[in-house]
Amino acid sequence: MPMEMIINSGTRDEGQENGEENLPISRASSEDQILAESGFFWRESGAVKALVCRALEEKGFANGFSTRVGGVSPFPAGDLNLAGFGEDTDANIQENRRRFMRLFAEDFRLTTVWQVHGYAVKIVASEDDIVNTEDKFDAVASDLPNLLVGVKTADCVPVLIGDAKTGAFAAVHAGWRGTVESIVVKTIEKMRAHYDTNAENLICAIGPAATCQNYEVGRDVIDAFAEKFSTGGKLFTATRENHALIDLHRANKEQLLSAGVLEENIFTAPFCTMERTDLFFSYRKEKNLHGKTGRLLSVIGRV
């Protein structure tokens, strides 16, 4: 498909113009009101705060999208870095995780994976699965009680999924590569195979990420989406030759809908990580500035 056919000319669709998706918080008269309308609220413990999807919690799923505030890491100071052991000390990350876990009333354990910008999904079904966090995957699913599964991001899209009928749940790391390969769809398919999940019973929360106002990509990404997405043109806004802004929030929502998730059960956080570096880490904004950046953690589980 020719490039000019898959990129918008620069105008935004009616829903975006009316602020229905990716509304910048700086333009909002009330952050709490926008959060409530989007289906989210803040949960705080001391200086630590996380974004919680209300619909997931009401169905019995503990969940949270971390922020950068309330930690001990020098990113540049007092930040809640929850991963990236190569750029922070083990002691800092473990202390930050201890603080983050205090947001949850229950005595949860946490398991993560070694993310590789792919589309493989790990099923956590045993003690060995829980303690082995070096497996290379980009989504984690389980139905074990008292366990939080988590994914790490710093601009990529985190997606949390809860099956209101079976109690199964998943956390998904959807960068542009994972989104091109439909990782959220693959996660739902994996949940269907292992837990007999019906997509109509799923509650899905799409967390803070780099959004279409700020996330510029080049021709390689545009071509990749043109090849895999029949609606690719709706995801891009042209900026300059061979470049465009991409809306990964929208891309992942469209994939959830294509998998059979009901639109009323999909909730998108109204935050851009590149805009709100006061709240979130942003690889694109901070890596060149500080030489490193922290990692956010998005988690889900049930008692």
Question: What report would you give on this structure?
Answer:
- This protein is α+β, with helices and mostly antiparallel strands and 303 residues long.
- The protein has a single domain (3-302), classed as 4-Layer Sandwich (CNF1/YfiH-like putative cysteine hydrolases), CATH 3.60.140.
- It is 28% helix and 26% strand.
- The chain is built from eleven helices and 16 strands.
- The protein has helices at 3-6, 14-17, 31-38, 54-58, 90-101, 127-131, 176-180, 183-195, 219-228, 248-258, 283-290; strands at residues 40-45, 48-53, 61-66, 69-73, 109-111, 121-124, 139-142, 147-153, 157-163, 169-174, 202-206, 216-217, 236-240, 243-246, 266-268, 296-302.
- The strands form three sheets. Strands 1-2-3-16-8-5 form a six-stranded mixed beta sheet. It has a six-stranded mixed beta sheet with strand order 6-7-10-9-11-15.
- β9 and β10 (169-174) form a beta hairpin.
- The protein is globular and about 50 Å long.
- The N and C termini lie far apart (48 Å).
- Mean pLDDT is 90; it is low at 1-6 and 8-23.
